[in-house]
Amino acid sequence: MPTSTSTLFKNATIITYEASTKSLKTLRNASMLVEDGRITQLSEGDLSDCPSNTETIDASNKIISPGFIDTHHHMWQTAFRTIAADTTLHEYFRLYGPSPAYQYFTPDDMYHGQLASALELVDCGTTTVLDHAHGTFSDEHVDAVVKADFDSGLRIMHAHVVQPSEALGYSYEKSLAKFKNLLADPRFADKNNPVELGLAYDGFLSAPPERTTELINVIINHNQNPSQTPLSCLTAHYVGGPYGFDQNPTTLHNLPTSLITQPTLTHKLPILLSHASFLSQTDAALLRRNPHVTISITPESEAHYGHTSHGADMAQDCASLGVDTHFTFSAYLPSQARLWLQLQRSKWYSQTAVVNGEVPANNPMSVADAFLLATQKGGEALGRDDVGVISVGARADVVVFGCERPGMWGVREGDPVAGIVLHSCAGDVEGVMVGGRWVKREGRLVSPLVGGGRIEVAEVRRRFEESARRIRGIWEGLEKPVFTAGEDTGFGVARYGRCKTVEVRR
C-alpha cells in the first residue's frame, strides 16, 4: 500500500513515544513528515528538508495521536448489532457466536459484516486489529472474510480459527487444510498490504492432544522456513473461574509441547490470551518471565457478559486492550481505555476506603497508562515496535483529532492524552492514516477498496443493511434459551446462579 507522495503535518500537537523512557511526550506547534508509509522526521517547529512532491497539511488546532490497537475482536458479527443488548455470556454462546450462525450466514453476509466492522474501526481511529476470526464455517466463508480484510485498508492480523473438533459443519481437517492454504497465500507476504496472517485456536484443553501437537508443528515448521513470511500471532480465549475455560499461561506451559517456553517459538510468535478472567498470581509471574505471551483485556465485554476482568489487573504490565463483540457496544477504543481506567480507580479506592476505612491519598492509575494500553502496549503485545507509537521510523498509522466540538475545547493547550481518554468521542476523529495512506480524511471515510478497484461506502452500507435485515428477521424467530438457577451449565465447572437485578422505575 505505497504512497505516491509524502505528507507534511505542521503546526500540530503531536503525542509521541520515547522508547528509552517508555513514556509519552507531547510536541507543541510541531511538524511530522511521512514518506513511503513511515514517519521519517519529527520536530518542534518547522521542517524545511522535504521532498518536492510533499503535500503540506496545516494541523493547527489538531491533535495527532498514534493509531489505536485493538488486540481482540470478532469482526464478522456486525449484523447482530442492537439485538443482543442485554445478553449474558451463555446466551451469547447459544445465539450469537459461531453456533447457530453457521447455519444462516452466507459468505456474502460474512463479507459485508466484516467490511462494515472494519469501516467502523477506521472511523473510530483504530489502525490495527487482531481479528479472532471464528466465523470459519466453510472455505467460502473464510475467503469472503479474507477478501473483506484486504479490501478494508485496515491493518488486520487475521487470526484464522482451526476448529478443534467436528463443529459448525467445518471439521478440524478442513479448517487446518484451509490454514495451510492461507500460509501459502502470496497476499499475506505482500508488504504493500497491511493484512497479516495469524492463528486462533481454542482446543488446547478440549481437542485430542495429537491435533494440538500437529498444529504446533505446522507453526514451527512454517516460522523456521526463512523463505516464508512468519505467522504474525497466535491467540486463544482464556476465561477461568466458574466458566472453566482455563487456557491460562500455566496450563499452556505444562503442555507436552509448551507454547510458553518452546525455543523455536520464543521471541518469534506473539501469543495473546484474551480476557484472562480469573488470572492467578502464578499466571502473572509466568507472563513476566515470557514477554512474548500477553493478555488482552476487553473491559466492556467482560462487564457486559459477566465473565468479569477479575485477576487481569494483576498483569497490566503484560496487557493490552480489545473490544471483542462490537455488535453489543461501540468499537471506540478510547472508551475501553476510559472504562478500564475508572474500573481500576474504583476498585482500589474501594479497597482503601471501604475495606481499610482510610481516605485514599493517591490516584491508583493514570490516564497516560490507560492511553498506553490502547496504543503502544498493543504493538508490544503483537511483537511490534513500529505501530501504536509516533516516533521516527514507525509506521505512519496516525489519527487526527479535531478540537472544534465543545467537549474538546481547551484540550490541545492542556493535556491532549487526558483529553482523548476522558473527553473525546468517535466524532472527534477527523482523519486516519494506515501506513501513510488516508483511510479517513476530513471526517469522511475514503473508498475502502485498495486492491485496484473502488467500492463506494454508500454501497457497502446498502448491502450490509440488506444483509443485517435478513439476519435480524431470522434471529427474531429463534427460540431464546432460559437458564434456571441451580441447573448444571453444561459448560464450565459450576451451576447457574441468579444475579440481583436492578430496578430504576418506582
From TrEMBL:
Family annotation (Pfam families): Amidohydro_1
Cofactor(s) it depends on: Zn(2+)
Ranges where the Amidohydrolase-related domain occurs: 63-182, 357-439
Keywords recorded for this protein, A-Z: Hydrolase, Metal-binding, Zinc
Name of the protein in its database record: Amidohydrolase-related domain-containing protein
